[in-house]
Amino acid sequence: MRRGFAHFSSTGPYSLKNSDQQLAMSQINVTASDQSDNSALEAGVHANRLSNLVNSQPAILDRETGLELFKDMTLGRRFEDKCAEMYYRGKMFGFVHLYNGQEAVSSGVIGAMKKKHDWFCSTYRDHVHALSAGVPAREVMSELFGKETGCSKGRGGSMHLFSKEHHLLGGYAFIGEGIPVALGAAFTSRYKRDALKEKNSDSVTAAFFGDGTCNNGQFYECLNMAQLWKLPIIFVVENNKWAIGMAHDRATSDPEIWRKADSFGMKGEEINGMDVLAVRGATQRALERARAGEGPTLLECLTYRFRGHSLADPDELRTEEEKEFWLQKDPLKKLEKDLLERGMANSEELRSIEKEVDKEVIDSVDFALSASDPDSGDLTKYIWAEENI
Ligand SMILES: Cc1ncc(C[n+]2csc(CCOP(=O)(O)OP(=O)(O)O)c2C)c(N)n1
Ligand SMILES: [Mg+2]
Fold first, then answer.
1. Distance from Cα 180 to the centre of ligand 1, integer Å
2. Which residue, 7, 221, 226, 387, has fewest beta-carbon neighbours within 10 Å?
3. DSSP structure class, residue 156
4. How many A from CA of 182 to the centre of ligand 2?
């Protein structure tokens, strides 16, 4: 899968050098062909993994799918930009974690799945997953404003988006919380098919989570159980290198998360998470295996968040070289280039999609601003199951 230099994984707690420094020292072993991307060397370990990655079988692109993906990713990007604006204007409260830069993962995975049939579990970085799953922008924005029209009736806010209709089983503030929930959804699907003999029960669940979360126990427990029972689940790691201010390679024994699948006898893939077609291709393969009863897949998507951890993060830890490297890999620009080069769309069409998306985003804000707050008399509503919800 990879070419290049020695892989460093051991940065003990007493090491004076971090892995990026070790990487720079290791360049003495780099062959001429590895030096093609100097910006990756300067940008560190994570960037190097991406530039050394040989993509395996991206999805086949047709015009309709290409335009759908472009629209979904544009919606994700512009919706989040608007969130930042609204947050700084004091319209949203609490922590808000944006997804800019990671759009190819949401659109690539969810776009390959069957809407309202397959299931999803997200994290606190959940707005774009909800949009890709089809939750209307109005409902997502309303939730962020704490309004009754929000997808969680204004009770959840940014980190707790939920939609039964769109099979979104929640955003979760605690890291790793969504993984066992996703496992349960996958188990339900298998149980219905095998025990209850519902032949059409072939839904697959995608669990999204970050690199930092892979150091938590739920990750290992759920991988074990999923493989043991051959559950139809896709573990989607969005490896953006950082867990708040902790660099991934300093926090884990082997930064190559996809390899951890191997210890469970599970299929694992390392993917360019800045390329929606690469993500889509890998998801299609994982879906095929899951629906055929062959069990789970671990997808490690190498990606990057363009903003700080949350909108309250001054983002002072990451180097300019690193940020610049990843900005150059902007997944929206990559897809646009692919569409134009293959003659599947022209620039005017793409600009008109952007305008359409902008209208949708502005409409979502207007809608959310004019919506009602939850009634204080209803504070305990939706805590217990009620009829006709
Ligand atoms: C169980 C638990 N422990 C600690 C935290 C504090 N915390 C919030 S975000 C975060 C980092 C998670 O990083 P990662 O999984 O890489 O996700 P990313 O923010 O990069 O999307 C941590 C440790 C938490 N939310 N939940
Ligand atoms: Mg992370």
1. 16
2. 387
3. S
4. 19
Query: Which atom from ligand 1 is nearest to the alpha carbon of 209?
Result: 15
Specify the ligand 1 atom closest to the Cα of 214: 15
For residue 115, how many C-alpha atoms fall within 13 Å in the half-sphere facing its CB? 11
In short, whether 174's Cβ falls inside 6 Å of ligand 1 is yes
Cα-to-centroid distance, 277 and ligand 2 (Å):
22
The distance of Cα 145 from the centroid of its chain, to the nearest Å, equals 23
272 burial via Cβ count (<10 Å: 0-12, 13-18, 19+): buried
Of 82, 102, 100, nearest to 144 by C-alpha is 82
**CATH architecture of the domain covering 51-368:** 3-Layer(aba) Sandwich (3.40)
Question: Quick one: pLDDT at residue 40?
Answer: 84
Three-state SS at 331? helix
DSSP-assigned letter for residue 32: G
User: DSSP letter at 148?
Assistant: T
Could you say which ligand is closest to the alpha carbon of residue 302?
2
Mean pLDDT on 203-216: 98
Query: What is the pTM (predicted TM-score) of this model?
Result: 0.91
Residue nearest to atom 18 of ligand 1 (CA): 210
| Structure tokens that stand for 226 in this block | 């999923």
Q: Could you tell me how many residues make up the chain?
A: 389
Q: 121 and 206 in contact (C-beta within 8 Å)?
A: yes
The environment of the single-atom ion ligand 2, i.e. residues with CB closer than 5 A, is 210-212, 240, 243
Closest to 103 (Cα-Cα) out of 374, 332, 367: 332
Q: Give the closest residue (by CA) to ligand 1 atom 12.
A: 243
Tokens of 134: 């089809």
pLDDT tens-place string over residues 68-116: 999 999 999 999 999 999 999 998 888 999 999 999 999 999 999 999 9
Alpha-carbon distance of 343 to 303, in angstroms, equals 27
Which pair of structure tokens corresponds to residue 127? 């707005």
Asked whether residue 359 carries a pLDDT value surpassing 90, the answer given is: yes
